[in-house]
UniProtKB/TrEMBL annotation:
This is 3-oxoacyl-ACP synthase. It comes from the Bacteria. InterPro entries: ACP_syn_III_C, ACP_syn_III_N, Thiolase-like. Keywords: Acyltransferase, Transferase. Gene3D superfamilies: 3.40.47.10. Residues 90-165 form the Beta-ketoacyl-[acyl-carrier-protein] synthase III N-terminal domain. The keyword Amino-acid biosynthesis does not apply. Residues 222-308 form the Beta-ketoacyl-[acyl-carrier-protein] synthase III C-terminal domain. It comes from Propioniciclava coleopterorum.
Length: 309
């Protein structure tokens, strides 16, 4: 076990909502910023932990898309929190599952003693990049941010096991091509506007997920020595309505996992931490419980991390 514990949580949701049938989606307002959302969630997590920004040793930004190409989003959020301090700040990106990857990375710093306190934040404003001509994606996504403060501990708490794998044959099933070196912003006027909008082949992504996840989870459970029964709560990436049937297929019982797709939709990198924060703050899980964080992301990447609270 890589010993660490969550000592503070915070989240942010925009006030504006839209509905598609009985599904609610949260959409950031034109006068709100991605950076403010991330900084707000981070401040709330630090306040809940009773930790000052200058006491943080490690700041990990875990968003699918950053605020700007340079510097890293972690540095920009840290600037909002303090003008000094001692933290190392950098970004970790596995798109929708970035938070799981970042928690995995942070737990290693903490376990080795290279850091005592880490701040991890995630969040995206993906609705600013949606293509209304792709209704499946346009009606699925919400904007949100979430953050946690994690500390070294002597308690029997921390990361029990983790796994991550990428299947590059599916790298282009879900993508946003424009904005960096392949399609620079300067080329937008003469380029294809679709390159600067989110592009998802939902059917291809779903079929790929269905093919790879059974083997991925079988390997994870075999290597970790855990079983589905050891998981008090599964906190999956809220990818789509197909998430719940897939988890049942993997052997998880109804009520053992969080299904908030209708209530919040796909929050990109914020999905897992936002759902985890809600479970912690509502008392659905608490000290001593084992939580399985998991999901798939563009790439195609899959993550699983078992955390004892």
């Amino acid at each position: 076990m890589r010993r660490c514990e969550i000592v503070g949580t915070g989240s942010w949701l925009p006030a504006g909502t839209v509905t598609f049938g009985d599904h609610t989606r949260y959409r950031i307002a034109p006068d709100e910023s991605h950076l403010d959302a991330l900084a707000t969630a981070s401040r709330r997590a630090l306040d809940a932990a009773g930790v000052a920004p200058d006491e943080v040793d490690l700041v990990l930004g875990a968003s699918a898309a950053g605020v700007q190409p340079i510097p890293c989003t972690a540095a920009l959020v840290l600037e909002q929190l303090t003008s000094g301090g001692r933290a190392a700040a950098f970004d970790v990106n596995s798109t929708c599952t970035s938070f799981i990857t970042a928690l995995d990375v942070a737990s290693r710093y903490l376990a080795l003693g290279d850091a005592e306190t880490a701040l991890i934040f995630s969040g995206d404003v993906g609705t600013r990049f949606l293509n209304p001509d792709q209704p499946e994606a346009f009606q699925l996504f919400s904007d949100a941010a979430a953050a946690v403060v994690v500390r070294r501990t002597d308690r029997d708490a921390g990361v029990l096991a983790s796994a991550q794998r990428t299947w590059p044959a599916h790298a282009h099933d879900t993508e946003l091509r424009g904005g960096l070196s392949a399609h620079p912003a300067a080329a937008y006027a003469g380029g294809d506007p679709a390159d600067y909008l989110f592009d998802m082949d939902g059917r291809a992504a779903l079929l790929a997920m269905a093919r790879v996840l059974p083997g991925f989870f079988a390997s994870f459970f075999e290597a970790s020595g855990l079983t589905t029964d050891d998981c008090d709560l599964v906190v999956p990436h809220q990818a789509s309505p197909a998430m719940a049937p897939m988890l049942r297929r993997l052997g998880f019982a109804e009520g053992q996992f969080v299904d908030a797709v209708a209530e919040y939709g796909n929050m990109v990198s914020a999905s897992v931490p936002f759902t985890l924060v809600r479970a912690l703050e509502s008392g659905r899980v608490g000290r001593g419980d084992t939580v399985l964080l998991c999901g798939t992301a563009a790439g195609l990447t899959a993550n699983a991390l078992a955390l004892r609270l």
